[in-house]
Amino acid sequence: MVFLKKYRLELFIFLSLSLSYFLLRLYNIMSLPIFTDEAIYTRWSQIARYDSAWRFISLTDGKQPLFVWLDVVVMHFFKDPLFSGRLVSVLAGFGTMVGLFFLGKEIFKNIWVGILSSFLYLVYPFGLVYDRMALYDSLVGALGVWGLYVEILLVRKNRLDIALILGMVMGGGLLTKTSLFFNIYLLPFTLLLFDWKGKEVKKRLFKWISLAVIAIFLSYGYYSVLRLSPFFNIIGEKNSIFVYPLRDWISHPFNFLFGNLHGLLDWLISYFKLPLLSLVALSLFLKKNMREKFLLLLWFAIPFIALALFGRTLYPRFILFMTLPLLPLVALSLQKLFLLSKNKFAGSLIIFLFLLLSLRADYYIVSDFARAPIASPDLEQYINNWPSGGGVTEIINYLNKESKSHKIYVASEGTFGSLPTYAVEIYLGDNKNVDKKGIWPVPSIIPQDLLDKAKLMPVYFISDQTQIPPPGWPLELVAKYQKGIGNSYMFFYRVVSK
Q: How many domains does the chain have?
């Protein structure tokens, strides 16, 4: 009771933040059409749920399985499999928000910096986009933030129990995405916060090194679980698609650096917004806590520059986890500005003005995603171009209705990774009245089996990437659906029986 009385304001704020978080993340969450990668991960989760032999199915495409495993658990409680995957990201994002509270509070020893860090994540457009999608990146962000927080605790407290927890957090990161190897690579930089002036420096340093080795050993122990799968080696092959292996990079070390930096900085500004980036810069001019600020800046800068150096195929979502350590720096600046203001109203107005562009982006993200002021590649991928699933919901509803009274056959463009093919498998896989087939490449002459089946039952064809129907196919257009505000469409045809 004494604790509740002492911190009742802080607890009220945290509960308000939590409620606001779930309202904002869950509001209109299914309005964004299913994205290609979401369809892949959701289908993997379905397969892993019903067949334990395929619990490592994500490794067939070189992706670590923790997100899929969590989705398998959540999928037991909800009917819509896409919603289940998106809920995993919602929960992961909440973990990020809580982690930022502890990170901000611990690194600057100020509970209000922690609260402001959480609040900033609540309205952070980057977080809002990915906390509402069934993708890996929110989970990557959560484990990145908690990894940094526990590493700071380890260097300040030098305790075995913290090292064991750190091993679990880093291990979870390695089971999620290769980029979280940075939790290990950046661990030595936490020595910036080591007490070099206290007693028995050598003894305490040796103890920290021993505990760090234990944590790293544990994390690799968790990661080694993946070696049980014969597909473990595909992780390396998949990584080489997105980043240059060292042997390739040496032949052109700086050829792509400035082009990559230009793109990454553009995406950073699109999501983080210039007013908040100015607050990051302002925090560096504040006199106190220079080592702490430098550590947070390194946690952003080193992965960011490494990605610019080695990046081969880049997407904005790759930098989400890197940007999160910047939020406590913004929170520190806002807290100082608030204290310098004449009254609480003026201080609150200052915070509001700095967040105005972020709040505007948030409004569009939840209400009109196609026009949201965010990184253009994300708009293209998620709603305005062919990777988006605009029209999938309508087509699935139509096919469900048709299949209630008789058998139908559904052909779709593409096989592995094809959005229409995976969507049909996700939502109609258990429907005994629906036979289905993925076709790739789409031939100029319609496959004979479709013509034969069209004499027996309705046969449909869903075209996603091919915007012009094959001229030799006898098709009747049922409907076409524009993807966002772009020039890409999903076409839904019925095969005409000859």
A: 2
Say whether 176 sits in a helix, a strand or coil: coil
In a domain, 305, yes or no: yes
State whether 376 and 485 are in the same domain: no
Lookup result for tokens 């890409």: 488
User: Quick one: 374 and 401 in the same domain?
Assistant: no
In tens, the pLDDT along 255-298 reads 899 999 999 999 999 999 999 999 999 999 998 999 999 999 99
**Which two three-digit tokens encode residue 153?**
């605790």
Give the end of a domain, one of 380, 407, 429: 380
Q: What is the CA radius of gyration of the chain?
A: 25
Q: What is the DSSP string of 206-221?
A: HHHHHHHHHHHHHHHH
Contact status, residue 386 vs residue 465, Cβ threshold 8 Å: yes
In terms of residue numbers, what domain contains 304? 2-380
Taking the C-alpha atoms of residue 457 and residue 127, their distance in angstroms, rounded to an integer, is 46
Q: Which stretches within 224-289 are classed as H helix?
A: 234-242, 246-249, 257-272, 274-283
User: The tokens 């509970």 sit on which residue?
Assistant: 111
For residue 385, tell me if it sits in a domain.
no
pLDDT in tens, 488-497: 999 999 999 8
Helix 137-157 with 81-108: angle, nearest 10 deg: 30
Shared-domain flag, residues 318 and 451: no
DSSP states along 289-342:
-HHHHHHHHHHHHHHHHHHHHHBSS--GGGGHHHHTTHHHHHHHHHHHHHHHSS
User: Do both 428 and 348 map to the same domain?
Assistant: no
Query: Does residue 386 lie in a domain region?
Result: no
The verdict on pTM exceeding 0.90 is yes
